[in-house]
Amino acid sequence: MQDSNSINPNFLPPSAFYFAVKFLDTPDMDSSFQEVSGLKVALGTESREGGDNQFIHYVPKPPTFSDLILKRSLLPNQNLNKWCKNAFENFVFDPKDIHLSLMGADGVTLASWNIKGAYPVSWELAVLDRASNELAIEALVLKYSSFKKEPL
User: Fold this and answer.
1) Which Pfam families does this entry report, sorted A to Z (predicted)?
2) 3-class DSSP state for residue 143?
């Protein structure tokens, strides 16, 4: 029997993939993205002096999460745009739970994460150059309270 933690010699990393982003309570905001970053959790530490002042003890602090950055070619999505506009222009925030999936070129889910309490904090359009033949890329930055990797 093969150990599930051993290296699979038949595994090939995916060479073509995309990310499916599903907003759990608002399916008309669902989108696909070509690049995702910021799924990061870190524990800080706090120093405490030992009883005899010869040692410093470090105790963990609650986890912190990085900003989630989603990038894609500029595509219209009225409901996603409205959600961002409410945050940026009206200062009205509606945190959403998100299911993020790494999809293979064949549409099969390779990995997925559940993200809790996400809301927009930044939107950016990449540099546009009329002499370039590149797609217009938008980046949406979200704050979130936590995430968990889902088993397949």
Assistant:
1) Phage_T4_gp19
2) strand
